[in-house]
Design a protein that fits this description.
13-stranded parallel sheet; alpha/beta; globular; 37 strands
């Protein structure tokens, strides 16, 4: 197995996973407990680098020389024992493909660019994130996979006696179903382990009166506020703060939905804030199948989904009592407020309300807000970040209207 491993973004995977891939490599997506990159680092040890689209390379990494022989893995590919073993046994020049798209290649970078490879036959299906809604669809399974891998052979911190646990602490194989990392606080909560494990990260907190069901991932320094109702299949990334009613939602990190309101079957990027009383539909009144905006196709795509909530890009804000229709897609840097339902696709860097209309967010205004928001976490919105968002602003202008 080569020492160098590159997690690359294909045109298709980057496009189909917008707006979340506007601002990060696909392998930096959080699904389950960890990011896709962190999963691969556990399955295949090596020296990892990202290989994202052009404008993200200043921050996340540049391509190797064309003659460098390395392992290239599509960032949308989810690792498991079958896929890791298949990749480990590839010879130079071999590639794994899925619907004509390269999922893994071992050889010179120049050959990958030139589409020169030998296709390795697949005996089993591979698992990947094709579209944005696959993130919440696959999240319950990924929480379980990550949980048992990350906690194997480790001892959980003790659970306070002020809590109530429903179900057994271990599964039929004797594996623990509840794991509490160092510094976490859980008091006066009800934890239901009947449908899957619950992971509580370092310095995370579940406040009194909360009812939570597994499978659930509460990552480092994230908080579930008092009296929350959290259903299974949900992941709250580092520093997220959540409350109200949430079902099968993924929040990448540093985002807040701290108050009452409903959110289900949703994916939220970083640095988002969802105000008090915001409710988002995840089911159409006529129970018909859902269409979702697809940036790559530049149109709404048909799905086989009956349930789909909002998909929200980084640095988007929703004011108090906003309402969202089923499967609403909000781009990067959206500022939504006021009564009524907006269109089910709101382009990036739009601000306004359904009643009053929308206008463009000036770049300087966006930069100022992002700097203030990140500064509260002692993180910096630097010149590299500004150049990335200026490019996103330029690209996203093609999706307006």
């Amino acid at each position: 197995m080569p020492f160098r491993i590159y997690l690359f973004d294909s045109v298709q995977s980057h496009g189909n996973l917008l707006p979340l891939s506007f601002t990060r490599p696909v392998a930096d997506f959080r699904i389950g407990i960890t990011t896709i990159r962190q999963k691969w680092e556990d399955f295949l040890p090596g020296s990892y680098s990202y290989l994202p689209v052009d404008y993200l390379r200043e921050k996340f990494g540049c391509p190797p020389p064309e003659n460098e022989i390395a392992l290239f893995i599509n960032g949308s590919l989810l690792p498991d024992e079958y896929t890791a073993e298949l990749i480990s046994n590839m010879n130079e020049g071999d590639a794994i493909t899925d619907d004509g798209e390269v999922m893994a290649f071992y050889g010179p970078y120049g050959d990958l660019l030139a589409s020169r490879w030998n296709t390795v036959p697949l005996e089993n299906n591979i698992r990947r994130i094709r579209y944005v809604f696959d993130i919440f669809l696959r999240n319950p399974e990924e929480i379980c996979n990550d949980f048992f891998r990350l906690t194997s052979g480790r001892e959980s911190c003790e659970l306070s006696r002020s809590n109530r646990v429903i179900g057994d602490f271990t599964d039929s194989a004797g594996r623990p179903l509840l794991f509490i990392e160092e510094g976490a606080s859980v008091e006066g909560a009800t934890l239901n382990l009947l449908d899957g494990p619950i992971y509580i990260g370092k310095d995370a907190e579940i406040m009194e009166g909360s009812c939570v069901r597994g499978p659930l991932a509460l990552c480092s320094r994230a908080k579930i506020r008092m009296g929350s109702k959290i259903y299974g299949g949900s992941t709250f990334g580092p520093f997220c703060k959540v409350g109200g009613e949430i079902d099968n939602a993924v929040m990448f990190g540093y985002s807040n939905k701290a108050h009452d309101g409903y959110l289900g079957n949703a994916v939220i990027g970083e640095w988002c804030n969802i105000g008090a009383g915001v409710n988002a539909s995840n089911l159409k009144n006529d129970y018909s199948k859902i269409r979702v905006w697809n940036y790559y196709l530049h149109t709404f795509m048909r799905t086989d989904l009956q349930f789909c909530g909002p998909i929200i890009g980084d640095h988007t804000k929703l004011g108090v009592n906003c309402m969202l229709n089923t499967a609403t897609v909000l781009g990067v840097g959206v500022n939504l407020h006021g009564a009524g339902f907006p269109r089910v696709f709101v382009p990036s860097f739009s601000e306004g309300s359904p009643a009053g209309g929308f206008s463009n967010v000036p770049m300087k205004k966006f930069n100022d807000i992002a700097s203030r928001v990140m500064g509260r976490r002692e993180l910096y919105f630097d010149e590299v970040d500004k150049r990335i968002f200026e490019k996103v602003y330029e690209i996203a202008s093609g999706f307006k209207g």
